User: What shape does this take?
Amino acid sequence: MGVKENLKIVLEEIERAKSRRKVACDEEVTLVAVTKNHGVDVMREAIDGGVLDVGENRVQEATEKFKSLEREGVTKHLIGHLQTNKAKQAVRLFDLIHSVDSETVAEAISKAAGAVDKVQNILIQVNLAGEDTKFGVSEENLQSLIEKVDTLQNIRLKGLMLIAPNYADVENCRPLFRGMRKIFDEIKSTRQNFDMLSMGMTHDYKIAVEEGANIVRVGTAIFGERVY
Ligand SMILES: *Cc1c(COP(=O)(O)O)cnc(C)c1O
Assistant: This one.
């Protein structure tokens, strides 16, 4: 099946998952089409098919691919870990950075954004499962990172991001998504302009939406397997 057909299926699945929500959440869901490791032609096909949000996880790759994206109105997401030495490029390229997980990265982004008179929208990535192999701030250090981010001039905290472990039984993700939504709601009740919860990928986006995600990041289900 082609990209456009896959896209249609994913959008339908998102709508179905929304209607199954038991949580008190009637928010719309933004689909970020993750184009990493796929060529510009495929990215264009998705945009022609109506995709308004694209996600890349490496600054270098995005720099090349976004050059050919002269079309206005596509929101660009950085979903992978950011090295501080790439902050300058990142603030020029991306509308939303999902992967802030340390004071060092936050400071580098704010400084780079300040240099180009931008206020960079960001999410904080939370490692709720406590996996060693994953980036993300621990739940216990989340509050102090938020306080730090609030002191920075050129950064605006819009919400949280979670990458769930790749469990064989995807239902095991559910408690994590639910827990993340709870933490998100608690913080949201104390802040303004904090309304984005990015969680869910190909294998778990339906459960993520059921549990209150309002941004999902989907690659494989739209574009097929990546070849590295
Ligand atoms: C690659 C990637 C995705 C998309 O993964 P799929 O399983 O292909 O849907 C989502 N989020 C992040 C952070 C990624 O790196």
Summary: The pocket of pyridoxal-5'-phosphate is lined by residues 34, 36, 57, 79-80, 163, 201-202, 217-220 (CB under 6 Å).
